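To assess whether the prediction recovers the assembly geometry, we first specified each molecular entity separately, as shown.
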Amino acid sequence: MQIIVEDWGLVNYLDGYERQKKCVQSVIAGAGDHLILCEHPAVLTLGRRSNPESLLYQRKEIEEHGVMITSVDRGGDVTLHTPGQLIVYPVFNLNKHGKNLKVYMEKLEEVAVDLLKNFGILAISIGGQRGVFVGPDKIISIGIGVRKWVTYHGLGINVNTDLSLFNLIKPCGLNVRMTSMQKLKGHTVPMRDVKAKVVEQFRKYFCS
Amino acid sequence: MLLNPVMTSKEQGILTNIILPELGEGITKATIACWHAKVGEDVVVGQEICEAVTDKASFVIEAPAPGKLKSICVDEGQEGLVGGVLGIIE
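The predicted structure of the complete assembly is given in tokenized form:
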């Protein structure tokens, strides 16, 4: 099985969402699996399980920080996307990978843990809490949507993310601190290197 | 009785259950995040009718038959069991 990789660069969240929906329709219609890589200008997305208390400031105050707020059709609570965070949208047809949401989510976590290992970062997934952690700090968020067993949304990997923006929210509704590859390594991590490894890992886990 | 796929469930006098499908081994329930159709509304086969969320995944459920959404058995925010009835189309 092949994966078609698309790098959209920096794309407005809602424009990216529309493009993602078109991609989902094409995969439903029979196109091959797609792996979309991109970054979004600062935006808070509210998942289907969002708790109003997860926003720690009034909407107006948050928007005054230049951060857009939008509701989305993915599982999970609130999360932040901002440049420096690599967004990965696997648009995969689970009819070909096994129709099991739990297994798919666990596989995404394995991909994420393995990815970080390539950069010398020892991360773990924690039972009952989706995402990937380094110690108590969260480094990768995961939330997906599924339509006709084709997946969309996906992972937010904090590469060189401005972590101060996470102070606006309770990420994923949890009292958790966020971290980044940059913070852990003590230097900026080249985004192109992370993208290359993401593609490699997805091919390893989903093309065999 | 032979079913006519062009006729709605109501025209054929049958009720069709909207079932929470199997989402994978180990998943026994999901929360209904939202209904896209209201009771009394006409729906067509394949129309996105509601969304179930489990863990951090949102799963779109489609209308299994044409007709009118007769009732909603699991409201938004409530949990449904896999294989259980979420609503009924007439």
